[in-house]
Amino acid sequence: MPVTSRRGLLFGTAAIGAGALLTACTSNEPEAEASTTPRDAADDKPGKRVTIGFAGPQADHGWLNAINVQAKQRAESYSDVTFVPTEGSNDTAVQIGQIDTLINKKVDVLVVLPGDGKALTQAGLKAMRAGIPVINLDRVFATPQAYRCWIGGDNYGMGLNAGRYIGEKLKDKPDAKVVELAGIDNLELTRQRTQGFDDALKTYPNIRKVARQAADFTVESGQAKMAQLLQAQKQFDAIWNHDDDQGVGALRAVDQAGRDGFLMVGGAGAKSAMDHIKADDSVLKATVLYPPSMAASAIDLARALGQSKGISGISEAEIPTQIAVFSAVVDRSNIDTYLPTGFN
């Protein structure tokens, strides 16, 4: 994904969470720039050197790999940032040890995407107590005391927007049926995506969700679970698939079964999904973004913290405590806008 302006990352792809109670100002007019804020608005210029530690899970998934790439590329775009990443791990004990190492190195700011937010909470608390501010990326710690700022995806909004999109497509169809191919059920994010989807469907009394299968965010699980859904449901009108990686397998199952007559909405924004949407060559007609550019924004926030700055576009002298990225729906009507953001 091309490196964009800092304002574009923070306020083009991100919306301030309700807990932050902040309003973004994106005007480029001179009057807007001449704000009476107690900070330097020209925060893209080199400043105090900042060492940013980065700890994330193993990049065994397209989205997670894109997270690592986004963070690294953004850090390298700043001449005043030293980037110290760990080798990603899905083992909680290993990731805690890696964070301990970064704490011992006395990095200025720590960016953490925990494999399990609740399990890594003590590591975040330890860093904060050591005087190292933490940017909690996506999977949230169990307490806000474990981070200075959280930035991540809006999982509820992701499901809500998928449900609204499907609802509008099927609103005039009597007794419409939908199915759901969820992610990993023991993750809170999966439950939030399902809840958002279910809440959206409540406003469409003609639509019923008739089946749900949980997969594991992998191609193989997507194929196996989709095959089960197709076998059990001889007719339905739409499917909400939580993840584009498992969606690759789901589309294979659809092709193998020779099924059509329904639309599929994916999740995350993988390039493979966007290519199908652009070509209009499958049942996949849309995907709901979960943009990995949040990792680049996390580096922006970490640098701002290390340099005691706020962020462009808002009046506050400090960065907010919560930023939730917006889950836009991408279909053929806007695919050209979002296609460059697709990740492998």
Automatic annotation (TrEMBL):
Ranges for domain Periplasmic binding protein: 52-307
Residue segments, region Disordered: 29-48
Polar residues biased stretches: 29-38
Localization terms from the record: Cell envelope
Record keywords, A-Z: Signal
Main localization, broad class: other
Family: Belongs to the bacterial solute-binding protein 2 family.
Protein's recorded name: Substrate-binding domain-containing protein
Organism in which the protein naturally occurs: Streptomyces tremellae
